[in-house]
């Protein structure tokens, strides 16, 4: 678990008035499952968890999260948190292709690399934001290290292992589709793919011309071989922290996320189904997702209303009876548990919020 290399990069990103440029620092750590690269933005804030992201198959941290973290409204959130964006092994920019026969880690093993990252950075707690395979990895990590996870935003999570029917369908599809097309069908809805918008063209191009396509296939295989997370409502295997489940309506994983919602603790879980957002709400609706994220953080006692813009402050005031202030975390958590006013706009936590755009 020792450091390999450190690369200092200055990111180009549009700055808001009064903002100073933030440094992005890319690190690699050796883990029992190979080297893992991650990029840290911002500086650690005392008594605050880091936001740690984990991307889906076919993407890396930038192609998965840049539109969300660079969206205008997100800036007032992220200035309060250090961010750690993990690239799954072999997905980082410029990653060499693994040799044939390389034993790529399972999703459970990838979850086991997260403590190495946190230990290296000397961070003790996180709010995880994961998409697809990344959402699974962060959930597995949270099941094993619940004391270090303050909250989870899980986009397109499928907590179930593939059943034999899924495998048969997967094998059949594999006879007629290339790996990039199968991954695109995992990321986007059929409607989006046939619409062939600029976004789809961009991601089709990124994935089908990826110089590390062999590595991507290994991550894809690990995703398809995932074990069941075995969530059980009221049982021992459950997420104990506040969770925001997110899925686009008509997204490929809508049913899986709905089922996941039914298995988690309703007092800790909010379910955000986003209309017209396709398979990747963080790419297509970063503004809406940012707003929900803000309410989620507020329910956890972060994001005082006083540090919000006037627009979001007035919206929040009308939606929560007690705006949380920094340091009042237990009160805010109680509020969210008591289902009184809710952390999210149109209903108490543990309920569904549908956002139409
Ligand atoms: C961030 O500020 O956290 C960020 C910037 C660029 C890409 C991804 C994340």
UniProtKB/TrEMBL annotation:
It is found in: Cell projection, Growth cone; Cytoplasm. Keywords: Cytoplasm, Developmental protein, Differentiation, Neurogenesis, Wnt signaling pathway. Residues 333-344 have a biased composition (Polar residues). GO terms for cellular component: cytoplasm; growth cone. SUPFAM superfamilies: alpha/beta-Hydrolases. Residues 1-28, 320-357 are annotated as: Disordered. GO terms for biological process: cell differentiation; nervous system development; Wnt signaling pathway. Transmembrane segments: none annotated. Belongs to the NDRG family. This is Protein NDRG2.
């Amino acid at each position: 678990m020792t450091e390999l290399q450190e690369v200092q990069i200055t990111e180009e990103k549009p700055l808001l008035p009064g903002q100073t440029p933030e440094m992005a620092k890319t690190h690699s750590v050796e883990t029992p499952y190979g080297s893992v690269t991650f990029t840290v933005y911002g500086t650690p804030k005392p008594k605050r968890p880091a936001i740690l992201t984990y991307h889906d198959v076919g993407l890396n941290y930038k192609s998965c999260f840049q539109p969300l973290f660079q969206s205008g409204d997100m800036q007032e959130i992220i200035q309060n948190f250090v961010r750690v964006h993990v690239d799954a092994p072999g997905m980082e920019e410029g990653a060499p292709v693994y040799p044939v026969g390389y034993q790529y880690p399972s999703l459970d093993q990838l979850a086991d690399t997260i403590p190495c990252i946190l230990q290296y950075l000397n961070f003790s707690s996180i709010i995880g934001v994961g998409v697809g395979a990344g959402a699974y990895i962060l959930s597995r990590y949270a099941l094993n290290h619940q004391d270090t996870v303050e909250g989870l935003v899980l986009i397109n999570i499928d907590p179930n292992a593939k059943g034999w029917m899924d495998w048969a369908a997967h094998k059949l599809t594999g006879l007629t589709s290339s790996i990039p097309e199968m991954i695109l069908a995992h990321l986007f809805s059929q409607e989006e793919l046939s619409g062939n918008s600029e976004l789809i063209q961009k991601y089709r191009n990124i994935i089908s011309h990826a110089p590390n396509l062999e590595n991507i296939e290994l991550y894809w295989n690990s995703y398809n071989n995932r074990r069941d997370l075995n969530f059980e409502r009221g049982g021992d295997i459950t997420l104990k922290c506040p969770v925001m489940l997110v899925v686009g309506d008509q997204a490929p994983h809508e049913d899986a996320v709905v089922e996941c919602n039914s298995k988690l603790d309703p007092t800790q879980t909010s379910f955000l189904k986003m209309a017209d957002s396709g398979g990747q709400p963080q790419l297509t609706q970063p503004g809406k997702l940012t707003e929900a994220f803000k309410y989620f953080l507020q329910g956890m006692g972060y994001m005082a209303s006083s540090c919000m813009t006037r627009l979001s402050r007035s919206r929040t005031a009308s939606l929560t009876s007690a705006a949380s202030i920094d340091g009042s975390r237990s009160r805010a958590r109680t509020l969210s548990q008591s289902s009184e006013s809710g952390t999210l706009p149109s209903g108490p936590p543990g309920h569904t919020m549908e956002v139409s755009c």
